[in-house]
Amino acid sequence: MNPFARSRSDSDDTAGGYFDDWDEFVAEHNPDPGPFLEGHDLLTGDDHIAFHERTRELFERRGVYDVTFGYNLAKLNLDRRHPDAGYRYAVDADDASVLRAEFTPTTPFCPQAGTLTKGSFRAWNGLADDHEYEVVRVRVHPMHYQSGPLESTLAELEDSFCEAGTLEDPEGQSSPEHGLLDEPTREPPI
């Protein structure tokens, strides 16, 4: 259950024209790929849809939610009100076992960009058995005012994961047994 959910349902949003359907890729409602994806095999059409559907499931399991909008972060790609925001993906040109994911926030000063990209990284790589890639590399589009420091943080997280082969939680314990749960342990107090 999403503690940030508004009272509207997904079907209400789709019927109202705010969101594209999960089973369609509308290029003009997705951000343009940025420099992190240049020169790599960009996912479009059915390939984008397939990985993005998996992303929705993993983000749901790990609670990667945009608290501003009150929905699973994967839904941002479908939100017609923010056609330049969300994730784009590309298979690494040098290693097909690596997927690159670039997040474009809704604004250049999005205060959640760091939290959302780190949460995304942890969801994709902490549940790597649930998709076809050995590692998903994550970066923030350079339109964000803190993209440089965020890129450094994400690169350090990636290096640590690739070296150790596991994720560390903030207390230094490996996932998934310690602090990185697939399912929430309690209902929110709301």
From TrEMBL:
<feature type="domain" description="DUF7998">
    <location>
        <begin position="19"/>
        <end position="167"/>
    </location>
</feature>
<protein>
    <recommendedName>
        <fullName>DUF7998 domain-containing protein</fullName>
    </recommendedName>
</protein>
<feature type="compositionally biased region" description="Basic and acidic residues">
    <location>
        <begin position="179"/>
        <end position="190"/>
    </location>
</feature>
<dbReference type="Pfam" id="PF25979">
    <property type="entry name" value="DUF7998"/>
</dbReference>
<dbReference type="InterPro" id="IPR058311">
    <property type="entry name" value="DUF7998"/>
</dbReference>
<feature type="region of interest" description="Disordered">
    <location>
        <begin position="163"/>
        <end position="190"/>
    </location>
</feature>
